[in-house]
Amino acid sequence: MTQTLEISDDLMDRLESHCEEGETPEELIEELVSMYETEGAFLQEGYSE
Question: Which InterPro entries match (predicted)?
Fold first, then answer.
């Protein structure tokens, strides 16, 4: 089942700015969700608590 998610133009611009060459915003979101599910949180490189 496919769902549609509406986002603002500003958020789409932000997503597109983070995409690697040839990557779609949908692929970026899928990768981010997968990382979150695997690690339980988004980690920033070089950041430690």
Answer: DUF7557
